[in-house]
Amino acid sequence: MARKDIVEHEPSYLLHQMPYSETSQIVRIFSQNYGRVDLIAKGSKRPKSKFRSFLQPFLPLQLSWSGKSQLKTLRQTEIHGQYLTRIQGKHLLSAYYLNELILSFLRMEDPYQNLFALYASALHGFSESNPIEPILRQFEILMLSEIGYAINFETEALSQKPIEADLNYVFIAEQGFVSKRKHNSSPFVVKGQVIQAINEGNFSGQETLVWAKKILRLSIQYHLDGKELKSKKVFKAMERQDGSK
């Protein structure tokens, strides 16, 4: 989408904010029609700033901004839509994880309308304390597809033969699913019926949830090229703490 000098009332969510000066901040947002955008919120650190109460993560906002450079100037903020019930605990950590994925992978000022809609839906699910894992897996799968790193859950990577329910496969992050017959030594073996369930978005089975997490984790780690997300470090610490109880 071509840049516009002035954008009015754009549905958006705040992802992250950082100091810019003694009184101002840079706010990094995810918007419906412009994707990732960085804005200067002038005077937002002042106690009586018109932006101060609105610039919070996970609030559904309408933002207006202007500017020709990559760093725009925030002009107006307002709440758009319904306040969500406060997101808490692991659901809150999961919401911050989605923010980190967006900041790490999405290109600046490219539209991702489908992903924006799924992000809004995910926050709604977190606010109602819905099961976390299906929400995360659906978002990860769509995000990878939107940025050009889609996982092919339908066919083998080398032969392009359809995935068969009664066969076993090995997942290789840089290739995809390969028949176990060609990788007999790999411990990472997943059933064809599980791959099919993931492809259908059917996460009702525990085995499917477990393998979907492993597959998506491998793929995301590969594309992060060695970088580790802060929220993932916290997840791991919480898992170790839960396991010691």
TrEMBL record:
DNA replication/recombination mediator RecO N-terminal domain sequence ranges: 11-82
GO BP terms: DNA recombination; double-strand break repair
Assigned GO CC terms: bacterial nucleoid
SUPFAM superfamilies the record matches: ArfGap/RecO-like zinc finger, Nucleic acid-binding proteins
UniProt keyword annotations, A-Z: DNA damage, DNA recombination, DNA repair
Pfam families in alphabetical order: RecO_C, RecO_N
Family annotation (InterPro entries): ARFGAP/RecO, DNA_rep/recomb_RecO_N, NA-bd_OB-fold, RecO, RecO_C
Gene3D superfamilies linked: Nucleic acid-binding proteins, Recombination protein O, C-terminal domain
Family designation: Belongs to the RecO family.
Cited PANTHER family: DNA REPAIR PROTEIN RECO (PTHR33991:SF1)
Identification of the protein by name: DNA repair protein RecO
Organism, scientific name: marine metagenome
